[in-house]
Write a structure and sequence with these properties.
Blueprint: E1 6-12, E2 25-30, H1 36-44, E3 62-67, E4 71-75, H2 86-102, E5 106-114, H3 121-133, E6 137-142, H4 149-163, E7 173-175, H5 184-195
Parallel strand pairs: 2-4, 2-5, 5-6, 6-7
Antiparallel strand pairs: 1-3, 3-4
The structure holds guanosine-5'-triphosphate and magnesium ion.
């Protein structure tokens, strides 16, 4: 897919204030600092579209971007940010879960996972929750440029095996890097395919 336009539309904390649900929508979610905003910038070829930071907890709102006037790409705040307060975390859970459970035009959730790490409980639990709720998702392993392909592949295999305790088969997955653009074309091609179905 060629990205002809990528436009910031809104930032929201309230699900009832989101843009009208009249176009297919794809959300990027995952732990704080996993690289959600960076990947969105890499996919759209615009380094300044979504705000990124070395400090976890940068994205705090639901951010909608309109792509090619035909679909929405959504940048979400990260989960598992250790420094945030308990009440903050509960608020996050409530509003993100509400978004995921009620957004009728949501086609697929891309769950981002740091390819450098062994499977993390919080990511596995989140995937399990998506599965229980019947929310379609795919796995996007990030920061592939930071280590050998072999190491990434080993972590991907471990993550997929861990999912098999709850799922009969694992969802599609991608190995990506916002630095080298690895995997970006595949992610966009998948979105294109879903859009045209
Ligand atoms: P929150 O908004 O805080 O939840 O974080 P996020 O998941 O949006 O992460 P963000 O894109 O802001 O990136 C976090 C840090 O990781 C930044 O310093 C990025 O430059 C770095 N980063 C993200 N993706 C990559 C990647 O593919 N390769 C490398 N080397 N660094 C990356
Ligand atoms: Mg972010």
């Amino acid at each position: 897919m060629v990205i002809k336009s990528a436009i910031f539309i809104t930032s929201n904390t309230r699900v009832d204030k989101l843009p009208s649900a009249n176009l297919p929508e794809y959300a990027f979610i995952g732990r704080s600092n996993v690289g959600k905003s960076s990947l969105i910038n890499a996919l759209t070829g615009n380094r300044h579209l979504a705000k990124t930071s070395q400090t976890p907890g940068k994205t705090q709102l639901i951010n909608h971007f309109l792509i090619n006037d035909t679909w929405y790409l959504v940048d979400l705040p990260g989960y598992g940010f250790a420094k945030t307060s308990k009440s903050n975390r509960a608020a996050w859970e409530k509003f993100i879960r509400k978004y995921l459970l009620t957004r009728e035009n949501l086609q697929c959730v891309f769950v981002l996972i740091d390819s450098r790490l062994e499977p993390q409980r919080i990511d596995l639990d989140f995937c399990r929750w998506l599965g229980e709720k019947g929310i379609p998702f795919m796995l996007v392993f990030t920061k592939a440029d930071k280590q050998s392909q072999l190491k990434s592949k080993a972590n991907i295999d471990k993550f997929r095996s861990a999912l098999l305790q709850w799922f009969e088969e694992t969802p599609p997955h991608f190995l990506t890097s916002a630095e080298t653009q690895l995997g970006c074309e595949q992610v966009l091609a998948t979105i294109d395919e879903i859009n045209s179905n």
